[in-house]
């Protein structure tokens, strides 16, 4: 059972998970989680290490499909459509629900190609001038254009860690996603690069539904409007971020945010 704060502003659900459980072989890592993910706001998943935040995040774009031992029960919808139905095109789904990982993972290709690849394979842009404009727009939106516009042919892997992470965000944006999932996107970055990513998340928030897993409660408080607290595979409490941090209703949430464990 999740304690849901009743003062949450009503918003349409971009995604909805219902009674989602995830198993790795016989081990249950997520137990009966239901949540609505609204558009245009940032939702943070917090909780101690191993509580299942990343596992649950991966159910939202079927990244768990890539883990042979993982099995998902329950339903997840995007705009009301079941993303686990057999006819779902998973490649298309992952363009609509993009993902940014803990460790920046640019392709070992040029900065330009890192961005152009997705739009080209998804058929969004084919001609050189169309691709040029998607590349510029995505890099601008990710706050990276000014830093890389004169070196688009250089390898993406030659950028700094923070730039690489913004490149990965630009790559996700290039295919026009509706939701962006971020799994501890700043954990490999220094404080200055982290601050830039946080600013970027704030800029992007009005345009996409963003879900961020973070170990940092300060980060959750800075970037998100809604927070869900996970503990031992359960979603314990979900509410407006300010309430979760100032007026948690559940003892376990209180213990976590006051640093008693985790
Ligand atoms: N590929 C996997 N195979 C088997 N078990 C896994 C796998 N990935 C995660 N688990 C287990 O599932 C549980 C939840 O892990 P998960 O990584 O989702 O937690 P988390 O809250 O994101 O942790 P962290 O904050 O440390 O990243 C843990 O017990 C973990 O050991």
TrEMBL record:
Gene Ontology CC terms: membrane
Short name of any one Pfam family annotated for the protein: ABC_tran
GO molecular function term, any single one: ATP binding
Gene Ontology biological-process entries: phosphate ion transmembrane transport
SUPFAM superfamilies: P-loop containing nucleoside triphosphate hydrolases
Domain ABC transporter: 15-257
Lineage top rank: taxon: Bacteria
InterPro entries hit by this protein: AAA+_ATPase, ABC_transporter-like_ATP-bd, ABC_transporter-like_CS, P-loop_NTPase, PstB-like
Keywords per UniProt: ATP-binding, Nucleotide-binding, Phosphate transport, Transport
PANTHER family in the cross-refs: ABC TRANSPORTER I FAMILY MEMBER 17
Record NCBIfam families: 3a0107s01c2 (TIGR00972)
Protein name in the entry: Phosphate ABC transporter ATP-binding protein
Species this protein is from: Qipengyuania atrilutea
Lineage, opening ranks: Bacteria, Pseudomonadati, Pseudomonadota, Alphaproteobacteria, Sphingomonadales
């Amino acid at each position: 059972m999740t304690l849901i704060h009743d003062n949450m502003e009503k918003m349409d659900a971009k995604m909805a998970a219902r009674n989602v459980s995830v198993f790795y072989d016989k081990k249950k890592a997520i137990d009966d989680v239901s949540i609505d993910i609204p558009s245009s706001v940032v939702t943070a998943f917090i909780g101690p290490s191993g509580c299942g935040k990343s596992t649950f995040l991966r159910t939202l774009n079927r990244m768990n499909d890539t883990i042979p031992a993982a099995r998902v029960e329950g339903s997840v919808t995007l705009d009301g459509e079941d993303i686990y139905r057999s006819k779902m095109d998973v490649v298309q789904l992952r363009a609509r629900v993009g993902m940014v990982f803990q460790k920046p993972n640019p392709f070992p290709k040029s900065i330009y190609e890192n961005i152009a690849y997705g739009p080209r394979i998804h058929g969004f842009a084919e001609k050189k001038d169309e691709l040029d404009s998607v590349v510029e727009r995505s890099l601008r939106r990710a706050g990276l254009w000014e830093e890389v516009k004169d070196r688009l042919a250089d390898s993406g892997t030659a950028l700094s860690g923070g730039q690489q992470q913004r490149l990965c965000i630009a790559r996700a944006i290039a295919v026009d996603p509706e939701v962006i999932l971020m799994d501890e996107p700043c954990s490999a970055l220094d404080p200055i690069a982290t601050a830039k990513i946080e600013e970027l998340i704030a800029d992007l928030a009005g345009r996409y539904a963003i879900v961020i897993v973070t170990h940092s409660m300060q980060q959750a408080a800075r970037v998100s409007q809604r927070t869900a607290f996970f503990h031992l595979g359960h979603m314990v409490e979900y509410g407006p971020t300010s309430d979760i941090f100032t007026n948690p209703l559940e003892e376990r949430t209180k213990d976590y945010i006051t640093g008693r464990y985790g």
